[in-house]
Design a protein that fits this description.
By secondary structure, the protein is an alpha/beta fold. The strands form 2 sheets. Strands 2-1-3-4-11-10-9-6-7 form a 9-stranded mixed sheet, with helices on both faces. Strands 5-8 form a two-stranded antiparallel ribbon. The relative contact order is 0.17. The chain has a single domain, classed as 3-Layer(aba) Sandwich (Rossmann fold). The radius of gyration is 16 Å and the shape is globular. A hairpin with a 3-residue loop joins β10 and β11. The protein starts with a strand and ends with a helix. The longest helix is centred in the middle third of the chain and has 15 residues. It is built from 8 helices and 11 strands.
Length: 237
């Protein structure tokens, strides 16, 4: 039996990328298709005000990445925060990636802001701080593709750090068996990260751009994180 996942899509890919990559929701659909626990995903464009009907039930709600700031005042962001807080209070399982990771932290009492460290791009390595039952298969260290200039700087009450680095201390966290979030992008592939880097090359500067391009020679653990997510969703409260 498939786990039902509601994907709350918070951005569109650039127009020139649509034909090849479709969208962030579809990136997650492809990602979950590659791991052993079956997932049946439905995508809602929350920027356009799309949300599930009250009669629909999902095993988890996943908030995607976005170019928007989690601490922004856009009406759609405020609506999404209200929706997520309601889902949390109902006991629903919540997953967050990049913007979603930050927005859930902020919604549940943490803090996010523009990072003094600047842009994080390319493949980044994190030290794993915990070994939970759903973190299978196990890893000695976590490597993920990243693209962010904001970070969580204070976790919500009750949150526990799962992955950390000097650059990003709160790179992944969970709250019991209900909330699981990652700053990195398990749904990204190397080609998409390379395309984003090329678009942002002038903005990033040659040194950071060059370092990020070199990092793309390393593999990443996106498929493993996808399996962790589904095992987390399947874990009883």
């Amino acid at each position: 039996m498939s786990l039902r996942i509601c994907i709350l899509q918070t951005d569109d890919v650039r127009p020139e990328f649509v034909e090849r990559y479709q969208g962030y929701g579809q990136m997650f659909v492809r990602l979950f298709q590659s791991q052993p626990l079956a997932a049946d995903c439905t995508i809602y464009d929350v920027v356009a005000g799309q949300y599930p009907a009250d009669t629909e039930h999902f095993d988890a709600y996943l908030v995607t990445g976005s170019k928007a700031d989690s601490f922004g005042s856009d009406p759609w962001i405020q609506t999404l925060k209200t929706y997520l807080l309601e889902r949390y209070r109902r006991g629903d399982k919540l997953l967050g990636v990049c913007f979603g990771h930050q927005l859930l932290a902020l919604t549940l009492g943490g803090h996010t802001e523009r990072a003094a460290q600047g842009w994080g791009v390319g493949v980044h390595q994190y030290e794993l701080k915990r070994d939970e039952s759903w973190m299978s298969p196990p890893l000695e260290a976590l490597e993920l593709l990243i693209s962010h200039q904001d970070q969580v700087t204070r976790l919500p009450e009750g949150a526990e750090v799962l992955a950390s680095s000097a650059f990003c201390p709160f790179a992944a966290y969970h709250i019991g068996n209900q909330v699981l979030c990652f700053q990195g992008h398990p749904e990204f592939i190397h080609d998409y990260s390379r395309a984003l880097l090329e678009v942002r090359q002038a903005h990033l500067g040659e040194a950071l751009y060059g370092k990020a391009i070199v990092s793309l020679s390393r593999d990443h653990h996106g498929p493993t994180v996808a399996e962790w997510m589904m095992r987390f969703v399947a874990t009883p409260e």
